[in-house]
Amino acid sequence: MAFISSGYDPNEPMKNRITDIGPRHYEDFYPPVIAKNKGKWLYHEILEPGVLVHVAESGDEVYTVRVGGARLMSVTHIREICDIADKYCGGHVRWTTRNNIEFMVDSKDKVAPLKADLASRKFDGGSFKFPIGGTGAGITNIVHTQGWIHCHTPATDASGPVKACMDELFADFQSMRMPAQVRVSLACCLNMCGAVHCSDIAILGYHRKPPMLDHEYLDKMCEIPLAIAACPTAAIKPAKVEINGQKLNTVSINNSRCMFCGNCYTMCPALPLADKEGDGIVIMAGGKVSNRISAPKFSKVVVAFLPNEPPRWPSTTDTIKKIVEAYAAGANKYERLGEWAERIGWERFFERCDLPFTHHLIDDFRDPAYFTWRQTTQFKF
Amino acid sequence: MAKHETPMLDQLESGPWPSFVSDIKQEIAHRKANPNNVELQIPAEVPEDILGVLELSFKHGRTHWKHGGIVGVFGYGGGVIGRYCDQPEMFPGVAHFHTIRVNQPAGKFYSTEFLRKLCDLWEFRGSGITNMHGSTGDIVFLGTHTKQLEEIFFELTHNLNQDLGGSGSNLRTPSDCIGQARCEYACYDTQALCHALTNEYQDELHRPAFPYKFKFKFDGCPNCCVASIARADMSFVGTWRDDIKIDQEAVKAYIGGEIAPNAGAHSGRDWGPFDIQKEVIGLCPTGCMWMEGDKLMIDNRECTRCMHCINVMPRALRIGDDRGLSILVGAKAPILDGAQMGSLLVPFIKAEDPYDEIKEVIEKVWDWWMEEGKNRERLGELIKRQGFQRLLEMTEIEPTPQHVKEPRSNPYIFWKEEEVEGGWQRDVNKFREDHKR
Ligand code: HEM
Ligand code: HEM
Ligand code: HEM
Ligand code: HEM
Ligand code: SF4
Ligand code: SF4
Ligand code: SF4
Ligand code: SF4
Fold first, then answer.
1. Which fold has domain B7-159?
2. Residue A345, number of CB atoms within 10 A of its CB
3. Residue A353 β-bridge partners
4. I need a surface site. Which of A18, A287, B360, B436 has the fewest CB within 10 A?
5. Do A93 and B110 touch (CB under 8 A)?
6. Are the folds of B197-240+327-418 and B245-318 the same?
7. Which atom of ligand 6 is nearest to the CA of A230?
8. More confident call, A364 vs B240
9. Strands, E, within B6-124: which ranges?
10. Is the CB of A266 under 6 A from ligand 5?
């Protein structure tokens, strides 16, 4: 494994350096039918779950076969995607915002062989490589963050719970029986890299124990003022301790003010907070980003805590199934999960979903909390 | 024989959904066999160590990654996320294991030729594991050793004509919906605007000079497929200001059941025959639609362009022709004072190359935020702290009723001295001539 230079010279980093060229131009990558008809599409139709046709003013058609995928993906898998795209799609392919993969062909007769090929491919372990679906009033792929595969602050894993949930929701990935689309998202800590605060169903990792204090190493590993400044609730103060007769600069944490965000740990590795029993999952529901009919909404916390249960997170998947089934049974056509909950009332939502209501679900965080209490005598028994 | 036992992860090979565990295992097999005799620049067993670390996290219920350290490429303050494993002896292949954010092309279309080059580079100099894509939008190269960072950057820029994305307190990699490339609802060319602004602001993207992160996202219409309204400091949402175009023949076809409503999105259940009164007219949030005989009528002045009727009857109803976009600002996640949606700043602006008017708004917003924003204060928080009126003042935008959901319900107006006739300087003695002490 000899080191092979790219041509970069560490002694002269600026030599031949190319910077600020940005991404590749999108026009390099359009399939011809897209390049030709861009901006001139007339309408589209979902022919069956996972298969769309878009029809242009010119009469041209593009057929899209959408397949699910894990966003955590090897180059071997990407190369297989390329092989398929080369064989059927003239060497073009695209990804969607929600981690699905779209194979496009320019005539209807090319759809069936493409579908058959995609559906036939399986991993050695038995799962589908390219399940077709993710369209219309169904449940499409979950957008998510890194989790235990690569991040330092997660309170749960990402790829694991996503796989467990999508296995449970698989039939609805491949069908369109929901009243409207159901968007599920996962963020593995409350920083929420992923867009979970506006999803129909959001899975959110949450810590419940304040950081531990590694006094002996704290001053060596951290800039104490940075750790103090990082805390959004001002729970951290400078402190001194004596260990083995040595006076050390450190910090103290007012545990009752801690909201378990982990910002201090990001600044100071001597303040770890991850914990097997403390960490777990919050379920939020009823958010949306579309402006359709009603305004975009935030998701609401409907289950305050579920434990981490690797490898399959059964409490989480069961809860999500319950919410999905109650929604599918109760909502009107076109009604998003949050619109349904607001129409029947949140008191009914908990009843229909068979979820307990606990004091943790009443907002007590700063000013916006007040607006979530009930300032009317209108409620349902 | 696997390097690490992974009984819990092996469980995730079962079930129908694509298994990332199976995928990583196939990469392990590929690297071991190395059929193309690639001179792997980081050890072949790296993907095995990834699975090993993850299995340990499944067992412990805790992550085994430590953050950061300052790693990156010369002259850039973003694009690389430093990462170290807290069990380097057990997993030497991933002891230091930094991710690289590669700026995705607008619209996320690819040629296989380009994808294969990316794969070759990442097999040669990295773990062979990626995220397609990270949630900001970048292609994420998941893990390589420190020494390879400059080499990868050099190869990307010299051989692939491709740059890194953003991270840190700078402009994050912008991303967009598919838009006009394949969507009949798109009111402007999202790819063109996304690409133009990404290139215009390369310096802001690569060299952190902001109080905190800043995101652009581009949605072609109010359906908001990339969730711009919820997750971008500046959201560009397509809209129109003339009339929805109606094809009355197609309306009849929908009513007659010849065309499936909502492009067939509800075909998985029998919802009964299509009822235009109940499903379209009755759900219009502004009540601005009605039937005259068999003709569908819309009072376009009252329409708020929610997209519902167009989504239900895409072959009968089309977006108007006087198109542009709305700019909303300040969306952010809950940390800290609660989540914020974007608030409407520019109700309508044309989106035409070279986008000078749009850039003017962006730069005024940045000037204010860079001047007044505190360290780690998102734009939305600054707007809350100093007020929406201040934002309008700094961007020189006239206040209109469109800016608010409703007017204020308290009268605590902070009048400025120059707004009050005669100013605030008064003579108390003169006052006392009429009002005894
Ligand atoms: C149901 C809950 C939530 C949903 C659906 C949600 C959704 C999103 C989405 C879609 C994004 C855009 C991500 C991207 O740029 O790719 C986002 C960003 C963000 N979310 Fe959330 N979020 C949720 C809750 C939260 C919470 C609880 C927090 C913090 C406590 C949070 C903090 C953030 C932050 C800070 C960002 C911005 C990331 C950045 O600027 O790079 N979110 N969220
Ligand atoms: C104190 C606050 C935050 C900290 C400490 C933090 C930390 C991090 C770290 C360490 C990563 C890299 C994970 C990895 O690839 O290994 C990351 C990714 C990311 N962060 Fe944050 N973050 C914070 C707030 C936010 C906020 C507010 C947003 C959005 C509004 C956000 C959006 C993102 C996004 C989109 C990613 C990429 C995630 C992915 O694709 O996996 N972050 N963040
Ligand atoms: C800035 C704010 C406000 C001020 C200075 C204010 C002042 C007053 C005053 C002086 C009265 C008459 C008290 C009396 O009978 O002598 C009153 C009555 C009342 N106010 Fe307000 N108010 C304010 C805001 C509000 C708001 C926001 C609400 C409701 C959302 C409200 C609801 C009422 C009601 C219900 C009454 C009783 C009316 C009646 O029965 O005749 N007020 N307010
Ligand atoms: C919608 C606006 C308002 C309403 C309906 C309102 C109503 C009232 C009422 C009913 C009283 C009691 C009068 C009484 O005892 O006979 C009062 C007293 C008072 N209001 Fe207001 N008010 C309003 C706005 C304001 C504003 C904007 C201010 C100050 C900036 C203000 C300052 C006061 C003060 C200082 C008193 C006490 C006066 C005293 O003790 O004699 N009010 N107001
Ligand atoms: S959501 Fe939190 S834990 Fe997950 S990748 Fe983002 S910062 Fe890391
Ligand atoms: S976890 Fe967050 S709230 Fe708790 S002490 Fe650390 S910074 Fe403060
Ligand atoms: S946001 Fe609108 S224009 Fe863009 S893809 Fe979605 S529906 Fe089409
Ligand atoms: S777009 Fe929405 S508001 Fe406008 S007519 Fe259609 S349903 Fe009504």
1. Alpha-Beta Plaits (3.30.70)
2. 13
3. none
4. B436
5. yes
6. no
7. 7
8. B240
9. 65-67, 80-81, 83-85, 98-102, 109-111
10. no
Give the nearest chain A residue to B250 (CA atoms).
A43
Per-residue DSSP letters for B50-98? HHHHHHHHHHHTS--EEE--S---TT-SSSEE-EEES-TTT-GGGSB-E
User: Measuring CA to CA, how many Å separate B176 from each of A96, B108, B188, B193, B226?
Assistant: 10, 9, 11, 9, 6
What is the reported pLDDT for A192?
61
Instruction: Give the Å distance between the CA of B412 and the centre of ligand 3.
Output: 14
Q: What is the pLDDT of residues A280-339, one digit of tens each?
A: 999 999 999 999 999 999 999 999 999 999 999 999 999 999 999 999 999 999 999 999
**A22–B195 C-beta distance less than 8 A:** yes
pLDDT for A145-165, tens place per residue? 999 999 999 999 999 999 999
Q: Do B183 and A44 touch (CB under 8 A)?
A: yes
Tens of pLDDT, residues A100-123: 999 999 999 999 999 999 999 999
A317 touches chain B (CB under 8 A): no
* ipTM greater than cut 0.90: yes
Please report residues of A whose CB lies closer than 8 A to that of B375: 229
Q: Which atom of ligand 7 is nearest to the CA of B180?
A: 3
Q: Which amino acid is at A244?
A: N
Asked if CATH classification 3.40.50.10350 holds for the domain at B197-240+327-418, the reply, yes or no, is: no
Q: How far apart are CA A267 and CA A272, in angstroms?
A: 11
CB < 8 Å to A310, chain B: 8, 58-59, 61
Structure token digits, residue B317: 């109803």
Q: Which protein residue's CA is at the shortest distance from atom 6 of ligand 6?
A: A264
Q: Atom of ligand 5 at shortest distance to CA of A145? A: 5
- Note the pLDDT of residue B334: 72
User: Cα B151 to the chain's mean position, in Å?
Assistant: 29
**Cβ contact B332:A317 at 8 Å:** no
Say yes or no for a CB contact (<8 Å) between A290 and B224: yes
- Write out pLDDT tens, residues B59-72: 999 999 997 777 89
Q: Which residues of A touch B10 (CB under 8 A)?
A: 125
Q: What is the pLDDT of residue A193?
A: 65
Residue with tokens 């949140």: A346
pTM above 0.80, yes or no: yes
CATH 3.30.70.270 assigned to domain B245-318? The reply is no
Dihedral (CA of B309, B313, B317, B323) sign = positive
Phi, psi for residue B197 in degrees, rounded to 5: -75, -35
**Segments of B129-253 assigned E as strands:** 129-132, 139-144, 175-176, 216-219, 234-240, 245-246
The rounded Å distance from CA A184 to ligand 4 centre is 50
Q: How many residues does chain B have?
A: 437
Strand B295-298 to strand B343-349: parallel, antiparallel, or no bridges (unpaired)?
unpaired
Pairing outcome for strands A101-105 and A184-187: unpaired
Average confidence (pLDDT) per 10 residues, chain B, 437 residues: 92 98 98 96 96 98 87 92 94 95 98 98 98 95 96 97 93 97 98 98 95 96 95 96 98 97 97 97 97 97 97 98 97 78 97 97 98 93 95 97 94 93 95 95
Tell the residue nearest (CA) to atom 6 of ligand 2. Answer: A191
H-assigned helices in B61-162: 112-125, 148-159
Residue B64, chain A, CB below 8 Å: the answer is yes
CB A95 within 8 A of CB B132: yes
- Residue type for B124, please? F
Is any atom of ligand 2 closer than 6 Å to the C-beta of A185? no
How many angstroms does the Cα of residue B232 sit away from the middle of ligand 1? 9
Per domain, the residue ranges of chain B are 7-159, 197-240+327-418, 245-318
One-letter amino acid for residue B9 of the chain = L
